[in-house]
Fold:
Amino acid sequence: MSSTTASALSIAGLLLLAFGADWLVRGSSRLATYFGVSPLLVGLTVVAYGTSSPEIVASVIAALSGHAEMTVGNVLGSNIANVGLILGCAAIMAPLKVAASVLKRELPLLLGVTGLLFVCALRLELGRGVGLSFLALLVFFNYLSIRWARGDAPPAREGPPAHSLASSSAFTVFGLILLLGGAQLLVTGAVSLARSMGLSDFIIGATLVAVGTSTPELATAFVAGLRGEADLVVGAIIGSNMFNILGAIGVSATLRTLPIDEKLFRFELPALVGFTVLMAVFLYTGRRIVRWEGIVLLCGYGVFMGFLFR
Structure:
């Protein structure tokens, strides 16, 4: 495959991912509103999982295609991009406040799950046992999120819903179809580009694929930040990172063992832990992320990208 064709496939894949994720999130959000789900739960589950669908689809396809390094690179790169690039940009646009409940419940869980990934990776592979355990933890996290959100539920809706159940479901299903097609094109083009440019699967996964599949989160954070919906932004970032680790790696490792290059412990895995801890420090010190902290996160992401290509 020529570089031109590979680039065209990658661009087409990114476009399909962007449109598909937009429609999936729009339809899922309408479904959440239809059933009266709280805004925080929407951020932690519907928006987070909807915008993270490209990561899990791209990761699974890469793993099944024999490119396990791209799967690991995609998850690490996406989670770092979520904190450094997306949360950083959102905080620069407008300071992000966060509910105290998130600091007591969801954020500690994310710190624990990130640490768990680091510990499991010490075996230099993530096998089926790890994958199934991660999926079980994801189910448990969903259970806790729903249980905790009951106390945060909005007032009962008055009058008929703004959108029908049928149209909301159609948006969701069609968005998912576009995501599947876009992820396939993106992975195909990215692998070809990796070969032609002499780059490793991990580098391509941690950069092109990771940033490409994170564009839905960036768009969501941009809109939510402009509207002052801080809980939605922070909740989506936390939920997305949880889903990437427990869902994307969980499913991929269950289907095929994912090897872990010991070189990742020199920079990439510590960087993931570092970005997650830095986000937690910023949130715990003032229950918000202000503009200068957003600048620090964004600059940190720039340094991370620079080191990947050193």
Remarks:
- The mean pLDDT is 80.
